[in-house]
Every structure is written in structure tokens, then in C-alpha cells.
């Protein structure tokens, strides 16, 4: 619904954020230094602690906080990372703290350039809400349903809401749409006269299912549990095998000695019941996943999500975008959650917004068009990374679906190419550094693959692998426990390679 009336503006400058999830909270942090008053409108009643809520069903699944997201949130809210860790978040190095099953078997354990913060989505949001509530000019309004925009002369001038007290209009100088995948803002703009924006889509039919557990105490855990995170990648085997061997599996640690057991797939039906979940877990590529769950105490039912398609609303292609409106997070670009890009992309967009506001004399139409143009570059990095994987799946459908011959080529080369990069990163610090940057959205895949030094490292590793002279072993038996040996030392790696040791 659109209201084109012009009413009296509230004294002082007012910005309104639609949505109180990560993207909305980060946007409020970006707006706070530049507006007298910032209002965040959220449909849910927000919990005081780290608890699930109806508006964020995906909070029941694992969430990686990539380095680009960590850095963006930290710049918007100084001290965020320290407070997240103090609240229970875990600062880990995946290559040392995760058992990683890729290719034919377990990878070697060794130090690398990549570290990550592990926590639940609900804890991330709770810490962000605490930071927002410390800002005197930010108002967090709960139990509010946004049902329209006020528009005048090509500008968004406010929003229309409903609360338990009735309908209301909030006048605004600036509005941020952070309402997620289901945002209706685009429809309201079309009703006001803007053309429907082009939309790029690719749905690879990803479904994932999770269950929460309490871990045993440190004293009760097996001595072989050197790892905190368990990752099982889909099998490279093209022959007959159980559907569960195609699953991407995580045994994901979060705060308060808890873990999220998660299985996901491209195109396969996923278990919905507890019994089916446990049965599927026993058919994945290693028995360790099911046996680890057996040692834990379940604390939830099985949660399933399948609204996972990539979708980019191309508002940046409008010749005349609305004045006073920008989009952040899934409301403009939503990704396949497998790639952990959502939080980091939303936070990076919010940081970009703050940078643009710091240079702007006003938030006129030129400002909004300029922001959309810069945001396009930012979103293009994770978008191309998601396409590089999802376009290879036969089940993928959408505007970005490849012709069959191109899809077959991509499917044939993407797996071996990824394995080559992972293998080279085990032995080459420069390749490892670039791979970490790509994974964390600090560098595009194209930038990495046009680096002469990276290309030289990949060729060198390929030659060494062909001659059987890898320095770091890999492919340890997936039916056995993952090796605990730290292969960071060159001497350890050389000795293992020479003797064939698999500890």
C-alpha cells in the first residue's frame, strides 16, 4: 500500500529501518552518527537473551561469521567481537580445530591463515541488540507490522505501520529496507509507479536440517576428540552411493557447550523427523558424525529449511531510483545459506552505507543511485562465488541457469578445481592466504585466479602431486578417527610424506 499524502515532518532528521535482524541492526548502527533519530521497526517481540524467534527461523541452523562480516560489524560497533566472545562465542582456527573430510578422506591438521568466530545466530543478534540499545538516538520498536510506504514526488517520505494500538504513519527523511527475502517494499514501489526491478535467480534446491545438542563435559569426551568442529563435504564419487554421501554435514560448536548437528544437500529430500534424521546420520560418509551425536544430549526437535535460492533484486538497474531509500541484506540480495555469505554481506552493505553518509551533503536521488552502484560491486563478489558452485547442479533452476552443455562443463571442472586449490593451500602459504580471503569475501575468486603467484603455486602443487611428492598428507581413512597430528611443521610433514605415516 502507498500513501502519497504529504504531512508535516518530524522536527530533526529521522531515519527508519525496516527489520530488526542482523541487517537492520547493522544499518541502524550505520545511520546513528548521521541522523538525529533512528527508528528500527521489528514485527517480533524481541527476547532479552539469546533465544529463537518466529521472524528468524534460520537461527536454528549453523551460521558462520566470516572475516569480512566480523570486520564490518566491528567497525560499526567497536568491541562487538570481544563482547561476543565474552558471551560464549568461540575464536577458532578451522584448520587446527576442525576435522575436515574432503575428497577421499580426512585432511591433515595444520595451522593456516584463517580464523573464525563460532556462535549461534541468536547470540550474534543478542549482542547486536545490546550494542544498539546503548545508542541514545536509536529507538527499537517491537511488535510493529510495516504495511506501506509514504511517497511524494519520487521520494520515500515515511512508512505506514500497524501496532496493537492501531495504525500509524512515521515520517522519515531516509528509509532502509532490511525486511529480508519476503520484503514487500519492491511491490509497494511498483504500485507507486516504479517499474518492477529485474530479478536474477538461481535455486539449486538446497534443503538443510538441524538438531541442537548439549555436548558432554570436557572430562567425559573421548580422548580422540581433539576437534571442536566436524565438517563432511559431499563425496567426489560419481558412481552409485547412498544419497547421504552427497550431503554437506556440520557438527557445529556454539556457546554454552552446545553443538548444532546439520545435514544439507542440493536436490535431495532431507529428513524431517527425529527418527529419519538419526537414520540418515548413520549413512553419511563417516561414522564419526552419528557416534558424536550419540554421546550428546538432544535439546531440540529437527528443524528443516528449504527457502534457500539465490535472488538478486536489481534495483541498481533503475534509471531513476527512489530518493530516500536503500536496501540491505536479503531484501536486495539473498544467497544460498550453505556459503555463509548473508550476515557478512548485510554487515558490509551497512558499513558501505555509513561511508557514503559520511561523505554526503544530503540523501538525495544522486546519493541513492551512487550507493546502489557501489553496493552492486560489493554484492557481485559473493554472488559470483555462489554461482560458481550452484550453476553446476542439474537441479538448479532460475534466470541464471546455464545451458546444459555449459552446466556439464562447470560440474566436471568445479570439483577438481576446488580440490586443487585446497590441496595447494595445504602446502603453500600464499595460496592459503588468498583462499582464506576468497572464503571470507575479502577477495573475489577472479582476483585470486589471476594472481601470478597463486597460479604458480597451483601449478607447482599439481606437479608435485603427479609425482607423489606432496609435503602434507591427506586422504586419511574416513572410517577411522581423523588424525590428531599437527602437520604445521615442515619437518613433521616431510617425515609423514616419506614414511607414509597416518597418525
UniProtKB/TrEMBL annotation:
Coiled coil: none annotated. The lineage of its organism: Bacteria, Bacillati, Actinomycetota, Actinomycetes, Pseudonocardiales. Pfam families: FAD_binding_3. Residues 474-503 are annotated as: Disordered. Residues 484-503 have a biased composition (Low complexity). This is 2-polyprenyl-6-methoxyphenol hydroxylase-like FAD-dependent oxidoreductase. It comes from the Bacteria. Gene3D superfamilies: FAD/NAD(P)-binding domain. PANTHER family: THIAMINE THIAZOLE SYNTHASE. Residues 109-357 form the FAD-binding domain. InterPro entries: FAD-bd, FAD/NAD-bd_sf. It comes from Prauserella sediminis. GO terms for molecular function: FAD binding.
